[in-house]
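Retry 2 of 3 after timeout on previous attempt. Resubmitting structure tokens to design endpoint.
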């Protein structure tokens, strides 16, 4: 089989699954009074369903995402490092330096200080 045919089959299977899921979600459901009530551990939850977080937690989340993406970029780099040699090492050094400078800036602005 050619790779184009396999790709076409995978595309058709994906579209078929998406269509089945869409169709299952479109069917009518029974209107019951308890469906719209937030429910937790067998009792009604006294807190609202959509709680708010303080804005300072978003900085932690963005910092986590930045370093999480760093690992996503370092794995493929590590795989091809031997082929590319010193230029690849310098590129990763610049990348890590930029991330480290961002961390230093966050520390200098008090972004990681516990309150």
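Retry 2 succeeded. Sequence:
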């Amino acid at each position: 089989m050619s790779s184009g045919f396999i790709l076409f089959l995978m595309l058709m299977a994906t579209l078929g699954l998406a269509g089945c899921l869409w169709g299952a979600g479109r069917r009518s459901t029974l209107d019951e009074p308890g469906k719209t009530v937030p429910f937790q551990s067998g009792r009604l939850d006294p807190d609202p369903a959509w709680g708010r977080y303080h804005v300072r937690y978003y900085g932690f989340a963005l910092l986590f995402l930045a370093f999480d993406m760093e690992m996503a970029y370092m794995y493929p780099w590590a795989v091809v490092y031997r082929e590319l040699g010193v230029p690849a090492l310098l590129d990763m050094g610049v990348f890590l330096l930029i991330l480290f400078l961002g961390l230093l800036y966050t520390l200098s602005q008090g972004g990681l200080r516990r309150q």
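Attempt log closed. The helical segments are 3-26, 56-84, 86-108.
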